[in-house]
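Customer ticket, subject: "Can you confirm the structure for DUF659 domain-containing protein?"

Message body: Hello, I'm evaluating your service for our small team and ran a test protein. I'd like someone to confirm that this is what the system normally returns, since I don't have a reference to compare against.
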Amino acid sequence: MYFLKSINATDKIQDHQYLLKEIKAVVMKVGYHNVVQLVTDNGSNYKNACGILTDEFLHMAWQPCLAHTINLMLKDIGKWPEHEACIRSAQQICSWLYNSNSLHSMMRQVIGGELVKWNATRFGTNYMFLESMFKKKDQFMA
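Agent reply: Thanks for trying us out. I re-ran your input and got the following:
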């Protein structure tokens, strides 16, 4: 496995036809007989493009990116009512702690380091922030 190329597609409509053209060009450059698996984002546009390729080249398989799949699962879990309020509160606490230089500095001194900050596009960080707060709760309460 290796990385071959990247393209700037910000000005392109990234539908399955565009992706099929780009992915197939790479497959043909490498040699279709050398490609056994396609791993991509699991959006429907990628799934459709790779489905056409795997129908054409029967020895190839498509696999959605595991990290992307888990991220989407955590996004959905975060919408469950029993999780949503807790996550929203954690995000507000994180923003409050990190948006003030003096408060942030005081927090670092009290807990002896940093918390894992949540990231709006990486849904696992919501749970990582909660875990880091839980692990440092004694320092916060001192």
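A couple of notes from the result: The first strand starts at residue 37 and ends at 40. The mean pLDDT is 93. Feel free to reply with more questions.
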